[in-house]
Amino acid sequence: MITVHGFSPSGNCHKLRLLLEQLGEPYRWVEVDSSQGQTRSAQFLALNPNGKVPVIELDDGRTLSESNAILYYLADGSRFLPSDRWQRAQALSWMNFEQYSHEPYIAVARFIAGWTPLDSPRRAELPALRERGHRALAVMERHLQSHDWFSGADYGIADIALFAYTDVAGHGGIGLDGYPALRAWLARVRATEGFVALPEPDEQAAQRIAQTA
After folding, report:
1. What would the pLDDT profile of 139-149 be if each residue is shown by its tens digit?
2. Residue 14 host element (H or E)
3. Whole-angstrom Cα distance, residue 115 to residue 109?
4. pLDDT at 35 over 90
5. Mean per-residue pLDDT for 107-134?
6. What distance lies between CA 137 and its chain's CA centroid?
7. Rounded Cα gap, residues 199 and 197, in angstroms
8. Is the separation of the CB atoms in 13 and 4 below 8 Å?
């Protein structure tokens, strides 16, 4: 059985939970609260010296980190990873887009809004993060105007990778009102069999999000 070391509010970690649930694969979840420094413990650093969640641990002791690499590993041989060579490369292209042009802005804006104090100097980063986040959403919107999915002809791991933080972009003050094709895609993902939503932020994070301009 695969063990997932993850932080439930994290979109990067939720990607794995969503895929594992939709695969119907048994797994064990070990909660690691990265907001409280638990990824810096000696025990966790032995699993991932980079000190980040998620990490999966196999029964034989092997570990794998980086959420999209884990998605690729878990989906291999399943309907969630395109069998066609070109479509598989396109899916990987969108997953790289998610990590380099999407997550660093949309996910970080959400983290700052909900998981840093209201007087944190990091909140000065929010306007620039939101601008870059909207750029990423505009790229996705253009694609979705003529395609249903990011993983090729069908739903798959590129959609899972992009869905996680896009669905909660509003937490960081990045609204989705101007993206009708994107909102329709989010609804299609939510309608997939076995879908599970990202947990709502805890009370303290929700209050900070509500008070963030």
Report:
1. 999 999 999 99
2. helix 11-23
3. 10
4. no
5. 97
6. 14
7. 6
8. yes
Question: H or E stretch including 65?
Answer: strand 63-65
For residue 36, the SS3 value is helix
> Taking all residues of the chain, what is their mean pLDDT, rounded to a whole number?
97
Q: What is the mean pLDDT of residues 182-186?
A: 98
The two tokens of residue 148 are 């249903």
H/E element, 72: helix 67-75
> What's the pLDDT score for residue 148?
98
Which residues, at least 6 apart from 183, have a Cβ–Cβ distance to it below 8 Å?
176
pLDDT value for 49: 96
Helix (H) or strand (E) run with residue 159 in it: helix 157-166
Q: What is the pTM of this model?
A: 0.96
Please give the C-alpha separations between residue 162 and each of 17, 46, 165, 169, 208, in angstroms, as whole numbers: 14, 29, 7, 11, 24
Q: Environment class of residue 17 by beta-carbon count within 10 Å: exposed (0-12), middle (13-18) or buried (19+)?
A: buried
